[in-house]
Amino acid sequence: MSFFEDDEERIEEIEEVTETGRRPGRRKPKARKPKERKPKERKPRGGGPPLGQSPLARVLIILAAVVILVLITSLGIQSCLNKKKVGEYRDYFNSVEAVVKESDEIGKQLSDMLMNPDEAVRQSLEAKLAEFLAAQEQLLEKAKQIKPPDQFKQENEWFVATMQIRVRGLKGLQPAMLNALEARDNQAGAAQVSHELLILLAGDVAYDEFYYQPCQLDLKEENITDIKVPQAKFLKDPALASPQTAVTVLDRLKGGTAQVSGLHGVSLVGVKAKPSGMVLVSDSENSLKASESLTFEVEVENQGEATESEVPISLNLSAPGRPSPQKVDGTIPTIAPGERRTIELTGLAAEAGSQAALLRAEVGPVAGEANTQNNVGEFSIVFS
Q1: Which of 306, 312, 307, 290 is nearest to 361 (CA)?
Q2: pLDDT tens profile 233-259
Q3: Which residues contact 56 (CB under 8 A, 6 or more apart)?
Q4: What are the domain boundaries of the chain?
Q5: pLDDT per position as a tens digit, 12-56
Q6: pTM higher than 0.85, yes or no?
Q7: Which one of 17, 189, 263, 334 is most buried, counting C-beta atoms within 10 A?
Q8: Angle between helices 55-115 and 125-145 (to 10 degrees)
Q9: What b/e string do you get for 76-86 counting C-beta neighbours within 10 Å, with b at 16 or more?
Q10: How many other CB atoms are found less than 10 A from the CB of residue 285?
Q11: Do residues 308 and 264 touch, judged by C-beta distance below 8 A?
Q12: Reported CATH class of domain 266-383
């Protein structure tokens, strides 16, 4: 209530006393209508937050923006680090592969020389073995210079060790071969040659067990699928390291006639379908599942008295509805007397049908083989 409103009230009381002739006392308050007041409009202060947005909301928005920025930056940094790591891995395994390929080539040349020696090989055997050794020693030095990523430091030691084992095997093979060629008894010389070749074979086992497989596992755990660990194989055929094969090798290197004299012959032991594992029989129909790429295992036995090399294997499938037979070929590098070897052949195709197809398996013949009746097997197959 204002000051003027109080004066007006007093004047009214005096007038009332005058009219009634009595003193003013307590009187009943006069009811008045409340005075309507209009709400004051507040103008936003200069520089303040816009209407409807509190300081807390602004803080939350700023925090959210900071978090998003940090996440984006973190992801970008992580992506760059991953790319750098993968690049280091790829460079490392490319370096390892280059050394392994050159070393494997030495082993392939050595295997070919031992399995199929000719007059030129006999005359230059010592020089060739020295050449192989010198080349492998250079590769060992290259292997030592390769710097592995921290993740593969332990495995890399086995890679270097594999190259060292190959140097050791070749270093021992040279005198073993020369001494065996001078000895009359091939059996005694073959034992030492076989020992040195087994050392070379052990290098392949060590590489696979302690380098190849652990590296593959490390890459898988890091979810890296586009980098492959190089595989290694020095001896073309592990059977070269057997004493029986070494005897035949020495005889050939001496210019003997073991490969064309005496009893020679291979036989077909059996044929197994994969992946079912069913052994095919020749005296009744066989039921197999049709496929665009059939796989068969062919087992062969050397029934002769000498190690045979490059034994040919073939499968022919005459299927209903196909104008000509399908054929796939393979080769067993070496097989010692009395030994059985298995080779896997794939690539034949067959469709389901009610009519039987004919699968013909053939092994050999080898040089000097007189009896070839047990070299062939024929199997009737109904594909479903």
Answers
A1: 312
A2: 999 888 888 888 888 888 878 765 444
A3: none
A4: 76-253, 266-383
A5: 555 554 454 455 455 555 555 555 555 555 555 555 555 455 777
A6: no
A7: 334
A8: 170
A9: eeeeeeeeeee
A10: 10
A11: yes
A12: mainly beta
